[in-house]
Amino acid sequence: LTDEERVFLNAAYLGDVGIVRQSLEDSAESSLNVNCVDYMGRNALHLAIDSEKLDIIEILLDNLSFNCIEEALLHAISKGATKIVKLIIEHPNFMAGEDKLRRMGGGDAFFRLEEKSQFPPDITPLILAAHYNNHEIIQMFLSRNHTIEKPHPISCKCQDCVTKQNYDSLKRSRSRLNAYRALASPAYMALSSPDPIMTTFELRQEMMKLAEVEKEFKSEYLNMVEQCMNFACELMDLCRGTQEVEAVLSESDEGTDRDPLARLKMAIRYMEKKFVAHPNCQQHMTSIWYGSEMGFLQSLNGLMQFVYLILFLPAIPFMCVLYIIAPGSKFGAVMRCPVTKFITHTASHMCFLILLSAATFRITESSFAITKTDDMNHPRYNHLTYEEKIQSLLKETLRPASPLVTNVQICIVFWVLGLLWIECKQIYSSGARSYIMDYYNAMDFAVLSMYLSSYVLRFFTEIKVREANRSFNGTYRANALLHQKNRTYFDVFLAEMKDARNSPKNYFMEASRFQWDQYDPEIVSDVLFAIANVISFARTTQLMPAFEVLGPLQISLGRMIGDITRFMVLFTLVLFAFMVGLHNLYWYYGAQKIKMVVNGQLVAVNAAKAFEGLQQTFFSLFWSMFGQVSINDITINHPKRDGGEHYHKPRHCMTMDGERSKLYCADGPFTDGEKNESDSPQMVNSTALVETVGMYLFGIYHVVIIIVLINMLIAMMSHSFEDIQTDCDVEWKFARTKLWLNYMDDGSTLPVPFNMIPTPKSVLYGWHAIKFFFNQDNVVEEQGRHKRQTFLKTRRETVCKNLELKPDETSYSDIMHRLVKRYLFKLERAKDEKEIAKEGHGNLRADDVEIWDPTQNDGPPPPIPEVPSRIPFATPPIPEEDDDGKSNMRLPRRKGGTRSHNRRLSSANLPIATTLAIPQLDAIQRSQKLLDMRLQQLQANHKETNRLQDDVEFIRRLMAENQKGEIVNLVQCLKPQPKPKPANSISSQGSVPNAHNQSNAIILAPSINMIPGSGLVTIEREIEILNAGRKMDRETFDSGDRFIKKEMRRKQGLEEDESNL
């Protein structure tokens, strides 16, 4: 920078209009560059914005280039200077440059190579204003038709996206992040979107996908996701009445009003938990849940609600019948209430579980069983009649005698069909995609599929059994023989049936399951029925969120299932690794069998039973986690060591159990030679290495699985439970709302199995559907569109009619406009409160602070002068380089004279902020401490300077005394008398103080000792030495004088700095 440019920049910062105008006028003649920048890249307009000098800004806008103006505009936006931003964008130079840039196309800022700006090239003024959430500046640019273009999807393969990705991938990611940060600005969404809540939901979904793809910026995207959620909750919080809440929750993305809870369902689908759990939303949901018919339940306590529930349960079947007959009656309105539907469906589910328990425990069947004809005369069956004994014997011997489909099974079939009808209606109303997304629906689908498969197999088996019974007439003949008490022929008949069982039909006459095939249809049916029963009872957990105590537990259980699923990945890897290693180690021994005598019987056992094949190895490792496999199960049974022999050896040997075992074979005991040959130590210990390595692997497996992985799973589950408990209220309300919505839709009023009965209403709906399908009558659609009005709107209209009030019919757009205005007012109030809090601390300058001492001043302390609302932070002056190359901070001086920088305002008698503006009391105290430290340093330097002056004076006197002493010594040296002592010679000089005589003696002693005996040559030499000493003393004195002057200049500079401060 030249001197003119330094003067120009400092004048722009200090607000000196005269210097700025004069510099601009002389710029054509001088070497002044009006677009010059300082060492931080700040131009004159930038500095003027820092000091908020509007007159200077107006002058500079007329002379600076468009690039400088654009850069200064971004700086003004970052400072939040609304007036300056408005002044810049309304200036003709900026408008002309903007129009020129728009006509030329502007180019893509992504490929801009200049990086002199403090902002990235993709940052536009509107984007920067959105980053700071300044609604006033955002509105300025929106009114000028500025927009923020939404980035292309991250998976976009267009030419522009591919080029940017290949050019600079990091720059592309940063540009996308900046754009979404601006789009997620609450002020920008409120001012630019006609539906801010919908925009919030969509942005959240996009940014959550980006957070999953761009892991590097995941935290930034998640913070913006949370910001969007808070904005939606703030808008919901600004609703002042039920009408506004109802309008917000009923607006759907299609723009229709067919569903009064369309927006709420969308929020649940997008997992907007805080929005759903908002108090306004929950209060509206609670009003709909209880309705006008059951609203009294909301005011009852828990005990009274339980008593009412007990009294209500017996009346459910009668109310269902009344609803079928007269759906439009008072009972029909009660049955359509969501809480009533929940109670009836819950009671139906409990009845279904009771039926499943009855079918599982076979309560309808007798608890005694007669398997043989001889048992019919047993005393313990004397309480039974003869007919009961016959029926019990037939059920245990012949399969057709036991009915497969009982009355309980028939009831279960009706329940399953009713549940299937509910699921079909749900798929039709919500769509297949939404149906699949709910894992409870997947559970219902699996349960119903298994129940239907089970009963299909059961009916198939029933048909086959009846066909076999008709072929042999087995039950009739057996029943006749038993009634005739011809038990001998009955046993013969059973023997004949067993002999003819090789035919396919005879198979279905056998009653003993031990004689059935493992894949018998009835066995498979029981397996499917058992699994479905487990899931049906687990399905009850869906009802737990309806209760505040049980809801968080159900949510924690679902979260822990996810943890277990993630844990199983690592667990399967470790389990498979050890399974492969141990199987590779024991594969030979697991396949070998040896004969051993166990409890007096000869049995064939595996040499390594725990690792017999991959399947057995897997089971052994899995159950070992629960302590079901001992260390003895993994040892190898050696045929020689454990007293056995290979199964396929020609001589099958065995051992007799006991403390002392002996080896035997089929043709007698071993001879001594045979025993010695077969029982060699090498052959007995042949499996020692395998057993040792196997033991170590098995031990390491237990350490890894039990100590490490199991405790890791416990820690993961504990962490999930703590997360749920931290946000327990939001999680529970969100889950409860999902449960409530299942009962708030029209339809499915009757519980199972009453929903299988056709009602007049269903017939009417079917007729309208057929009529609409063939005639395409739009009247039916319009009637259906306006039919689904909540009772809240109807009740409000009734109240308005009774009070002769005009109902306020407001559209959704009007309500959103109200909410946006309230939000902007809220931002304005928050801004004003922030400024008031900032002004409360007081923005005082250093020269406005006076030390008031109550001991020296009478009366109260002087008042603190008022300060303008905005005093900008000072920018340090432009550094200059001194002659020696060191940077020195200097204020520029105007040519032709000096100008004081501490001028005061005439109105408020306040100084203009020049070099220091302290906004808070802490900063004032900190500055005061710095001044105290500098004052102490100046005082110490002053003392040091005085000490140096005293030392110089002392050196001068000492030099004079030394010269006199040396002359006396030289004269005495010419005399033949002995040399005097230095102490006497020095003490004779009475002009030197005693304190200095001792030091002089110490200094002169070496010089006197160095003088030789006598002679003229010696005197000349001494004179030369004396002249050299005088020259050295003169140089020392000059050096000390220069040091003193330098210290005086430094002291003077510090005093000037202190006075300036």
Could you describe the 3D structure shown?
This protein has 1061 residues and is mainly alpha-helical. It starts with a helix and ends with a helix. Helix 41 crosses helix 43. About 16% of the residues have low confidence. Among the domains are: 183 residues, no CATH class; 165 residues, no CATH class; 138 residues. It has 44 helices and eight strands. Strands 2-1-3 form a three-stranded antiparallel sheet. Strands 4-5-6 form a three-stranded antiparallel sheet, with no helix packed on it. Strands 7-8 form a two-stranded antiparallel sheet. The protein is elongated, with a radius of gyration of 51 Å. A hairpin with a 7-residue loop joins strand 4 and strand 5. Helices cover 63% and strands 3% of the residues. This is Transient receptor ion channel domain-containing protein. Keywords: ANK repeat, Ion channel, Ion transport, Membrane, Repeat, Transmembrane, Transmembrane helix, Transport. It is a multi-pass membrane protein. InterPro entries: Ankyrin_rpt (IPR002110), Ankyrin_rpt-contain_sf (IPR036770), Ion_trans_dom (IPR005821), TRP_dom (IPR013555), TRPC_channel (IPR002153). It is found in: Membrane.
